[in-house]
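Obj.: predict assembly geometry.
Materials: sequence records (below).
Method: joint structure prediction, all chains together.
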Amino acid sequence: MTDVAKLARVSAMTVSRALRNPEVVTPKTLKRIEAAIERTGYLPNRVAGSLSSQRTNVIGLIVPSLRNAAFVKTAQGVADMLGQRFDLMIAHSGYTLKGEEAAVVAFLSQRVCGMILHNTRHTPRTRRLIQEAAVPCVETGNLVSRPIEMTVGFSNRKAARAMTEHLIHQGYRRIGFVSVPLKENDRAAERRAGYAEALKKHGLAVDPDIMLEAEAGLKSGGEALVQLVTGRRKVDAVFLTDDVLATGAVLEANRRGWRIPDDIAIAGSDDDEYQQNVLPPMTSIRFPRYEIGRRAAGMVMDRVLGRPRRRAVVDLGFEIIRRAST
Amino acid sequence: MTDVAKLARVSAMTVSRALRNPEVVTPKTLKRIEAAIERTGYLPNRVAGSLSSQRTNVIGLIVPSLRNAAFVKTAQGVADMLGQRFDLMIAHSGYTLKGEEAAVVAFLSQRVCGMILHNTRHTPRTRRLIQEAAVPCVETGNLVSRPIEMTVGFSNRKAARAMTEHLIHQGYRRIGFVSVPLKENDRAAERRAGYAEALKKHGLAVDPDIMLEAEAGLKSGGEALVQLVTGRRKVDAVFLTDDVLATGAVLEANRRGWRIPDDIAIAGSDDDEYQQNVLPPMTSIRFPRYEIGRRAAGMVMDRVLGRPRRRAVVDLGFEIIRRAST
DNA sequence: TTGAAAGCGATACCAG
DNA sequence: CTGGTATCGCTTTCAA
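Observations (raw structure tokens):
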């Protein structure tokens, strides 16, 4: 920057201004500076700038994993919303609270100017660190009433309850339930709770024998379906609370020649292209993943750009999409 | 840090050492420092550290988009390989060379210590900037012989040629070709070239009428298939060089009751769970997406950690997976 | 509108 | 093994 300043015959300070508030610099001076920047190939050093100004332009995003399309959609929303004004750092927690904590520490050390967590459960230390650092923070995912600061998401419990009730209204009485493993995953746990609530409300038995946890994957969804349908459990419908598991179940039914929904009804979750296009198209729950990312990013940016701190809980809801599989 | 130093009755310098080279500090002193860190809740400021040491621990990754699962798999590989030692910044180019350039400028300003680009074509300025900054850089994706510095990937052209030859050997003679739009996408262009090469080599006509560009998406793949099969084009096989397009084609054939491969053979690309599990399982090309991410990250880290600069071209190849759809 | 001086919070380097 | 001092490249603040 000194080089640029010399070449343009101004002080470094003026160069700095020209870069951030071109309008307060005389057009003539500005021209000279721009020419000098061009000639020297100068690239501002944001590390120095950040240290000096005590703020960065980096937003940190923590997702459980990049393997799950749902989180990636949210990340897309975040990335699109941030645009050129902010840079994006992404870390993954590996679905563990400790992993999340480690990522938070790393981000805080980098002095990110805002954080987005895809999770609403945290270790006490995670909460404390974020609060003490007073970094603008949005939690996404399962809606909670008392966020660290702001949250945007939907109620997994209500969504699962709504889908289960839909199945009950369609006349199904033995409804199997399949989710990804519940350990350290509040979202899956909430869905299971919603499912159970609906059954109880309608006087149906909550039978652990037909509530399965399955590893992520198409194959795994198919296996879960087979496990529920064969043997003596006699389910008439299966609700799989994961996009990939759900599609896997339908594809497996196709392979075995089971008719959907006559032999077995299948409902999915986190609607996507595949669920829409399999045979038959699947009843599912649509979650506004991308929109959540955009909103979360927007809320963080607002705070970074000056809006005062305020608790905020934004419920973006969900939608039950009825298709031919139920 | 000064607070910690005071509390531990040592200099700031010693605290700094304790954090980075605990082994050179007397155990007793170390204990005091650790206690002080605990008490003050001190979090190192990496911005300051980076400015001082003139190097960050941030690796920048640029992908065309987060919407394409293939790029996300590579990103996973990168993220997994980096582990805790480095932080990851992700930017997307929007599939344009100018977008990539903007992201490179942003990363260089952030003084990332290494960069991974998912692209091997760049604007002249992009190449120049990276070379002048002398930042360790790995390009992934379509293999080229003269990378900026290092590259790891596979030959899209060879892969497409191999698949086309496989179809020819199976006895197909009118082979339709579908890819995503070629504009600013060297990978898609290379595949088309490979397809054409194979046809020529076997004395088959290269007919632009049966070479389609389709927007990404399951629907779009189905439409392309229908367009090729109906009408008077009489293709006997279709090669779709995109995972989603390919699955979309099979699902559409299922809906219409077309028998695969008897009525129409379908080959895909970038093999994934879906292509494996549709009916019938699809012949496809397997690319080592995840491994590419790991290798790229490994190569960058090696350079950052001191291995000398050296041109490197790593071909991770591909594999033709034969299944029932052809 | 422009400039000079004083940090920002760490690390490098050299003494002790 | 520990400490002092200069410095990294920019922004803040205040004065001209």
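Conclusions so far: Residues 54-154+289-318 of chain A form a domain with the Rossmann fold fold (CATH 3.40.50.2300).
To do: check interface contacts against the pulldown list.
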